[in-house]
Automatic annotation (TrEMBL):
Entry-linked PANTHER family: METAL TRANSPORT SYSTEM ATP-BINDING PROTEIN TM_0124-RELATED
This protein's name: Metal ABC transporter ATP-binding protein
Domain ABC transporter: 5-247
InterPro entries: AAA+_ATPase (IPR003593), ABC_transporter-like_ATP-bd (IPR003439), ABC_transporter-like_CS (IPR017871), Metal_Ion_Import_ABC (IPR050153), P-loop_NTPase (IPR027417)
UniProt key word Coiled coil: no
A Pfam cross-reference name: ABC_tran
GO function term, MF aspect, one: ATP binding
Organism: Perspicuibacillus lycopersici
Keyword Transport: yes
Keywords: ATP-binding, Nucleotide-binding, Transport
Similarity field: Belongs to the ABC transporter superfamily.
Length: 257
């Protein structure tokens, strides 16, 4: 099976502090990997390494079976950042316009949208369940709907791998469950591989094929069932002993120190 992401003994430090130590994991085609860990555990840094924004101090990263240094097919990767949650609501752009910017990487900024591109944009908007909202100003949408616009922007160029960094922060329970349904649809219908960073362990284990628990080191990497069997031990290693379990009415579980 082909790996979209392969990390082999990767370590990284900012200045003098080691943030990631000896991380090895893989994500294969069509798989859904959930990455969890406390604040400051290195999750966003790991994503930056995978996106080539930082270089590992040690170890190797491969994307689609190519060493990252030789990898050039960046349009194969769609990325939704944490910042999509803090989007400026006053920004004067429609849903259609925001999603169309996802094609710039493939076609350049100044090229006019043809019939084919317009169809792709409408398809992406439909896939995230926002048909009928094309002309709506993005600032007039709810947080959950805005989040889906950013996913549509990330998938409009038909990436094979979608990376999402804490996309459901600040989004209510109903929008969150719609969000997971959207991701499962992408995985099932388009065979997109997904790497999702989240704090919501309950939601993650319910939807992913693989769980990775990070706190500088990788404390667990395996199937959700295996994680659930050893959850108490893994969570106390990951977060320390003093954790409390918070259950949400939408079924998600959070751990807080
Ligand atoms: N540019 C930087 N320079 C120096 N240190 C940094 C930089 N970015 C992050 N760090 C530090 O690296 C560590 C890991 O940060 P990172 O943002 O990867 O964690 P995270 O798990 O994504 O956290 P959160 O869940 O809070 O977003 C933290 O201690 C952070 O303060």
């Amino acid at each position: 099976m082909n790996a979209c992401i392969k990390l082999n003994s990767v370590s990284f430090k900012y200045d003098h502090s080691i943030v990631l130590e000896n991380i090895s994991l893989s994500l294969h085609k069509g798989e859904f990997l959930g990455l969890i860990g406390p604040n400051g555990s290195g999750k966003s840094t790991l994503i930056k390494l995978i996106l080539g924004m930082q270089k590992p101090m040690e170890g190797e990263i491969e994307l689609f079976d190519h060493p990252i240094k030789q990898f050039k097919e960046w349009p194969k990767i769609g990325y939704v950042s944490q910042k999509a949650n803090t989007f400026n609501g006053g920004f004067p752009a429609t849903v259609f316009e925001v999603v169309s910017t996802g094609l710039y990487g493939k076609m350049g900024i100044f090229k006019w949208l043809g019939k084919y591109e317009k169809e792709k944009i409408m398809e992406a908007i439909h896939l995230v369940g926002l048909s009928g909202y094309e002309k709506r100003n993005i600032g007039k949408l709810s947080g959950g709907q805005q989040q889906r616009v950013f996913i549509a922007r990330a998938i409009v160029s038909e990436p094979e791998l979608l990376i999402l960094d804490e996309p459901t922060v600040g989004v209510d329970g109903k929008s969150e469950s719609e969000f997971y349904q959207t991701l499962q649809k992408l995985q099932r219908e388009l065979h997109v591989s997904i790497l999702l960073v989240s704090h919501d362990i309950g939601a993650i284990t319910a939807h992913v094929d693989l769980v990775a628990c990070l706190n500088r080191k990788l404390f667990f990497y395996g199937k959700p069932m295996e994680f659930e069997l050893n959850q108490t031990q893994i969570m106390s290693e990951l977060y320390g002993q003093n954790i409390h379990v918070l259950k949400h009415n939408h079924g998600g579980i959070h751990y807080v120190k």
